[in-house]
Amino acid sequence: MNQNNETIRIDFEGSPFTLGPPQSATVIAELAGNPKEWGSKAHGLRLGADLILEAVRSDMKRRREADATGDTKAMAEARRDPRIYYRPQTFLLLAGLTLENLFKGLLVAQDPTLDTTAKSFTSHDLPALAARAGVGLTPNEADFVRFAAVAVTYFGRYPTPRNANSRDNHRSHSFRHDGLNLFSPLCDKLEAELSRLTP
Description:
This protein is mostly helical. The radius of gyration is 19 Å and the shape is globular. The protein has one domain (34-197). It has eight helices and two strands, in the order ββαααααααα. It has helices spanning 25-32, 35-69, 72-80, 82-110, 119-122, 126-132, 139-155, 183-197, and strands at residues 8-12, 15-19. It has a two-stranded antiparallel ribbon.
C-alpha cells in the first residue's frame, strides 16, 4: 500500500510504468460511477485473456497431436507440462474479471445512482451480477459465467478455497475446451450493449 502519497515507478524493459499517488474518495466514486471506466478496464483484461487463450489453444493442439501419434513419451511430456494445467486457470481468472467489469459497467450505465460500495455490487458473484444487469445468457454462457466466477473467487487465484463451507469449494474443475469459444462472442455482446447505453 502506498501510504506516503508517493508516485511509484517501475521499468518494463525500457518502458516506464507509473502508479500515481492514491486517489481521493471523490475520484474513486467518480470512476466507479462511470460505465466507460468499467468498459475500459474490461477491455484491458480481455486483451490479456485473449493472449493466454491463444497459448491455451496451442497447448491443447500440441497435446492432441502427441496423443494422435501414439508416442507414449511425447504424450507423457505433453501431459506433464505445467502450462497445460495453469494457463487455462489464468485465462478463466482474466475472463471472469473481464465479465465482472462488463456486468458492473452495465449496472452503472443502467442506474447512475447505484451505490458502487454496496456488497451486492462489489461481489464477484458473476451470475447474480449478470441477472441484475438483465443480461440474457444461453445455458452454455451461463455455465461459462458460473465457472469463471469460481476462477475469480478461488482456483484462478488461490491453492484452496477460503474455507470448507465456501460456495466455491469444488473438488474438481473440469471444463470442456469448446467452452473457451464462448468468451469472445459473450464479450462482444456485452461490449455492444455497454456501448449502446453509453454513446
